[in-house]
Design goal:
It is a single chain. It is globular, with a radius of gyration of 18 Å. The relative contact order is 0.13. The chain has two domains: about 5-70, Nucleotidyltransferase, domain 5, CATH 3.30.420; about 80-205, Flavodoxin domain (Rossmann fold). The protein is α/β, with parallel strands linked by helices. It is about 35% helix and about 25% strand. It has six helices and nine strands. The protein has a five-stranded parallel beta sheet, with helices on both faces. A four-stranded mixed beta sheet has the order 3-2-1-4.
């Protein structure tokens, strides 16, 4: 399939099937589709890879997509846990980012994660974790401590880091060293009382 086309990949994580549609946005033409058994109860990417394989079997090599948009028709949407600093501040900003991306918030944690918190997060087996905490130039200790505790945990889902920008590289390094899939984006609260949740929403949608 030729390159240079303005293509979008539309993904629906359903209760039974994960379904794909590829659309040429310039011509409003559906150029292909695929589906695979959903794995929303375990790892949603397994169902996605199966659907992509079905799609590739039909059209050959996958084209390059300018846009990838996902939604969930399964009950409740993708499960997300947020981890922030103070519940009324960065934790609330993280919550807004999660809900604005169409995720189902299954847990919200503030301050330093305790062993009981980690056990609860592992038991929930979220699809995504949003790790925030600290304004830019503010508290850097908590997000680094929480990154370390998540790194040592059994969670295997993607982690979106959207906190104190000075602490973000170290948080990313700790998580990646432990083999966790990490996406870095802008701080959801760069200044006290100022929310910037759109970059985090975009990152969540692309995970």
């Amino acid at each position: 399939m030729s390159r240079g086309r303005n293509l979008a990949l539309l993904i629906d994580f359903g209760s039974t099937f994960t379904k794909l549609r590829a659309v040429d946005l310039d011509t409003s033409e559906i150029i292909g589709s695929g589906q695979g058994p959903s794995t929303v109860a375990t790892d949603v990417t397994d169902g996605l890879h199966a659907a992509l394989g079905d799609f590739e079997n039909q059209i050959g090599d996958l084209p390059e997509f300018e846009h990838r948009l996902a939604c969930s028709s399964a009950a409740g949407g993708l499960g997300m846990v947020t981890v922030g600093l103070v519940r009324e501040l960065t934790a609330e900003a993280a919550k807004q980012a999660a809900l604005g991306a169409g995720a189902k918030l299954t847990g919200a944690f503030s301050y330093g994660l305790t062993p009981d918190d980690i056990t609860e997060i592992e038991a929930q087996a979220p699809d995504i974790i949003l790790l925030a905490g600290g304004t830019d130039g503010g508290n850097a200790d908590v997000i680094l401590e929480n990154a370390g505790r998540l790194a040592a945990s059994a969670v295997a889902c993607p982690i979106v880091v959207a906190g104190n920008r000075e602490a973000t590289p170290d948080a990313q390094a700790v998580l990646e060293k432990a083999g966790k899939p990490v996406t870095v984006t802008a701080n959801v609260m760069p200044e006290f009382g100022t929310l910037d949740v759109e970059p985090a929403r975009d990152a969540i949608r692309k995970v």
